[in-house]
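As a next step, the fold was encoded as tokens, giving this record:
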Amino acid sequence: MANWRKKVEAGGGADLRPGEFLIAAVMLQPDGLTGSMVAKGVGGAVGGALADRRRGPSDAPIGMASVLPAERCWLGVTPTRLLVWRHGELRGRPKGLVTEMPVRDLHRVDLEKRKTSHAVTLTFADGSQRSYEAPRLVNDTEGFADAINQP
């Protein structure tokens, strides 16, 4: 399993304040993307179209969740902040800070294990939610959730 904290520090470390450090980090992508990519690889265009239809349209989030990107992104947790970066396509590193917020504003992270990914639901202090998936082979999704959900 990759050490995402090191990768995030390499790509987004300039956005950390002096003395600040990452507790956990995770790469997230639109929910259903892994299944869609597998279906496209196995079944070509027909399999991809079926997977995209199965995914269905997603409602645009409201409230605090609306500041998070709909596409692949990186989340990093420090003792005081939640940082969100775009996903750099060339190297796969965090690129360009999208937003930041106090870590206390991310109320809970719920995980659901799937075959190749985790379904990840982020719930914010205002009750708004955003859903993603995190590929299991390359993420410490459980460590990220533990960092947020600890009492």
